Amino acid sequence: MVPPDPQRPQAGEPPRPAAGDGADTRVAAREAAAAARVLGRQLGLLAAGAVRGAGQRTRRAAQETTPLLRALGARLWRARRAMASSETSHPLRRPAPGSGLRGRIRAHPYLVGGLAIGAVPLVIAAILVISSLLTLPPLGGAAQDPGQRAVTVEADDGRVFATRGTFRGQPLTAADLPPHLAQAIIAIEDRRFYSHWGVDLRGLLRAAWRNAVGGGVREGGSTITQQYVRLTSLTQEKTLRRKIQEAFLALRAESEMSKDEILLGYLNTAYFGAGAYGVDAAARRYFGKPAKALSLPEAAMLAGLVRAPSQLAPTRNFGGAKERADVVLQAMVETGAITAEAADKARAQTITLRTPPETPPGTNYFLDMVAGDARRLVETSGDVTLRTTLNLDLQSLAEGVVARRLDAEGARKKVGQAALVALSKDGSILAMVGGRDYEDSQFNRATQAKRQAGSLFKLFVYLTAYEKGFSPETVLVDRPVQIGDWEPQNANNRFRGPVPLRTAFALSINTIAAQIADEVGVPAVIDTARRLGVQSELPSVPSLALGSAEVTLLEMTRAYAGVLANHAPLETFGIHAIRGAAPQPLYLHPDPKPTAVLPGDSRTMMLDSLQAVIDAGTGKGARVAGIPVGGKTGTTQDYRDAWFVGMTPELIVGVWVGNDDNSSMNRVSGGDIPASIFRDFVQRASVQMSKGRARRPSAARAEPAPARDVPPGRDVPPGREAVVGEELRGVPEVIDTGTLAFRGRVVRLLGVEGEGGTLARQLSRYLRRREVACAPGADSRALRCRIDGDDLASLILAAGGARASEDAPPDLLAAEEQARSERAGLWRRER
Question: In the chain, how many H helices and how many E strands?
Answer without folding.
Answer: 27, 23
